[in-house]
Specification:
Order of helices and strands of chain B: HHHHEEHHHHHHHH
Low-confidence stretches of chain B: 288-295
Largest sheet of chain A: 2 strands, antiparallel
Strand content of chain B: under 5%
Number of helices of chain A: 19
Structural class of chain A: mainly alpha
Shape of chain B: globular
Number of strands of chain B: 2
Low-confidence stretches of chain A: 1-14
Radius of gyration of chain A: 20 Å
Distance between the termini of chain B: 47 Å
Number of strands of chain A: 2
Largest interface: A-B, 41 and 40 residues
Strand order of the largest sheet of chain B: 1-2
Shape of chain A: globular
Oligomer: heterodimer
Largest sheet of chain B: 2 strands, antiparallel
Order of helices and strands of chain A: HHHHHHHHEHHHHEHHHHHHH
Chain lengths: 340, 295
């Protein structure tokens, strides 16, 4: 039944995976009301947990736009998260702005920085881009620490507390949906195809008339914008920001790990990866306590070495890894006979 | 004038540590094409071995060398055989992520065992020599001398021994090296072991002068990258010069910029990194391979 419905959706241009994700998120929609037995009281920690998952889905999807589609692996993407959080925080704390305009301006700060840093760094290839962005990320953390009069330095900033958790739940859910649909849309346009062409063969794409610089920078600032928005939301929800919390070392790598687990350069990959890692962390790592960061490092290595195509790629028809071939051999007889 | 001379001396001494720290990173990258993002963590492990020997058994930090070098060599050799060997010749994203994961595992394991409290090894050579208005911290002077000896030793090893020649051959042309009977796998494992041993030694050198803590690694990795970007892959004179430049820049900014100077000094290496990469992607002296060849 689901498949027929999916085909119907596909005919209207949304695609199978976007449809599945949509269904998944819609199914989760009423969950906060089901979690607690007292009907008029929602379990707050569960709600917070879902909120964070939606944030991670949004972040990973946006990382995937430059890292997955365009092939520019950004090791400092969290710098935009941090700028969004600090933009929002400074405006609310120092200038007493209200949340909505502050969040928007915070995201625009991230966009401005993306344009500033993107022009020089996106000219770099391969590992040089990754490391330049990693350097940018670490430098930005120190700059925020030094600019104490504005940002509170190492002491951090406190935002006016606002503990409306359902609001953040719906806000992050809505943002996740918008971002997934937008990226699904981007993938179906010529712009999206150009991004993939840049990943596959940048010189070739350029020769065929793709304005590579413009495309790369556009993908970069779009990703920065939504990442900045999430940063602003996170700051307001957390009510306290300091350089070490916001510019957390392994935040970007967490996003990379999620995207790779789901499938690099696919629309649904980051969503599946983020949800999987999130539940792993919730269910499994809660029992590991102080070992959980070690487990995270080990998981990263295992994913990268044994599942480089991600869940979607391995299950797909064109998987080149032994795991993917095994899967085809055992469960996808039809695909093998078709000679794919 | 005294302030200037003092800053110059401090910069050179810091530079000596940086240049010995960067050697392992730059040689591994040059020979195997693997960018080791766990580099700073290996420095940290070397420093912690020294600290434990110093704290629990009362060893002088410099004598810890006899333990640090062999144990780090074995660690590096084994890691290369079981993990890093999988990364050679695969896309850079893979090696970056795996070594990053390795770094996370290492720093958090050390944190689990020895807490996150900053530590410092105690040494008997903690005084100063005064020459005119300038002071030479004795420990740092010895570190500089040790750094120079290590660099000359590595240079002689790579230049004149059979093993060193095989390593250079493997770095220049792997296929040709294989054809003349060099066992590439063995060469890689030994290279990684030697480089990790040197990196651990850098950790040993720094342990009496700077606070060490489990998460000291990532900034050191980035500094190693910044120096390598300036100096080129696997070049020992380049490493010396790049390390000196970084050390001097950090110290001079720290000395002459009021208030925020110390923090600005920390940032300077990242700014150097980004600026050098942007303006001279082939390395300041053309030592880095063109990106297309590397990627």
């Amino acid at each position: 039944m689901l498949t027929t419905a999916a085909h119907t959706w596909q005919r209207y241009g949304l695609g199978r995976w976007a449809f599945l994700v949509l269904v998944l998120l819609l199914l989760l929609y009423p969950v906060p009301y089901l979690l607690d037995n007292d009907s008029d009281f929602v379990n707050p920690s569960r709600l917070l947990s879902f909120t964070q998952m939606f944030m991670l889905i949004t972040l990973a999807s946006n990382w995937n736009l430059t890292g997955g589609f365009t092939g520019y692996v950004d090791f400092g993407h969290a710098v935009f998260f941090g700028l969004g959080a600090y933009g929002t925080g400074v405006l609310m704390n120092k200038l007493a702005w209200s949340f909505w305009p502050a969040m928007l301006v915070g995201a625009l700060v991230a966009v401005a920085f993306a344009l500033l840093i993107g022009f020089p760094t996106l000219r770099l290839k391969g590992p040089y881009f990754s490391i330049a962005m990693l350097g940018t990320f670490v430098a930005m953390r120190e700059v925020i620490r030094v600019a104490a009069p504005l940002t509170g330095g190492g002491q951090g900033l406190t935002l006016p507390p606002y503990l409306n958790r359902p609001l953040f739940y719906y806000l992050t859910l809505a943002l996740a949906l918008i971002v997934i649909l937008l990226i699904r849309f981007i993938r179906s346009t010529e712009f999206g195809a150009s991004l993939v062409a840049i990943r596959e063969d940048e010189v070739g794409a350029e020769m065929r008339g793709v304005n590579t610089t413009l495309h790369k920078i556009t993908a970069f600032w779009i990703a920065a914008f939504f990442t900045g928005l999430v940063g602003g939301m996170w700051a307001y929800q957390n009510t306290f920001i300091d350089p070490d919390v916001v510019f957390f070392d392994s935040r970007t790598v967490e996003l990379v790990m999620m995207t790779m687990l789901g499938g690099l350069g696919t629309v649904a990959g980051p969503v599946i990866g983020a949800a999987t890692i999130y539940w792993l962390r919730d269910v499994l790592w809660a029992n590991l306590l102080q070992y959980h960061l070690i487990a995270q490092g080990a998981l990263l290595i295992i994913i990268v070495l044994f599942l480089p195509e991600g869940i979607l790629g391995t299950l797909g028809d064109r998987s080149a890894t032994s795991l993917g071939r095994l899967w085809r051999k055992w469960f996808r007889r039809d695909a093998q006979e078709a000679g794919t | 004038m005294d302030q200037f001379l003092q800053a110059l001396i401090n910069g050179i001494m810091l530079g000596g540590f940086y240049s010995v720290m960067v050697l392992g990173f730059s040689v591994i990258w040059g020979v195997m094409g693997v960018i080791n993002l766990a580099h700073g963590e290996f420095v940290m492990v070397g420093a912690y071995i020294t600290w434990v020997l110093n704290k629990q058994y009362g060893w002088e930090p410099f004598t810890a060398l006899v333990v640090v070098m062999p144990s780090m060599f074995i660690l590096g050799y084994i890691l290369q055989k079981i993990l890093i060997n999988q990364l050679v010749e695969r896309p850079h994203l893979i090696s970056l992520l795996v070594t990053f994961g390795l770094g996370i595992i290492m720093s958090n394991t050390v944190k689990l065992i020895y807490e996150a409290t900053p530590r410092i090894a105690e040494t008997a050579f903690s005084g100063f020599w005064r020459v005119g208005g300038v002071t030479f911290p004795i420990t740092k002077t010895y570190i500089l001398v040790a750094a120079l000896i290590i660099m000359i030793g590595l240079y002689l090893f790579l230049q004149y021994t059979r093993m060193g020649k095989s390593i250079r051959a493997a770095a220049q042309n792997k296929e040709a090296a294989r054809m003349v009977g060099i066992e590439i796998g063995q060469v890689y494992a030994l290279t990684f072991g030697i480089c990790i041993a040197l990196t651990g030694t850098a950790g040993m050198l720094v342990s009496p002068t700077q606070a060490i803590f489990p998460f000291m690694g990532p900034p050191l990795t980035l500094k190693a990258f910044a120096i390598t970007a300036m100096s080129g892959l696997g070049s020992i004179p380049g490493a010396l010069m790049g390390g000196m430049v970084l050390g001097l820049v950090e110290v001079f900014i720290g000395t002459y910029v009021p208030n925020i100077g110390t923090n600005l000094g920390i940032i300077s290496s990242f700014i150097i990194l980004v600026v050098v990469l942007i303006t001279r992607p082939q390395g300041l002296f053309g030592g880095l391979k063109p990106a297309t060849e590397v990627a």
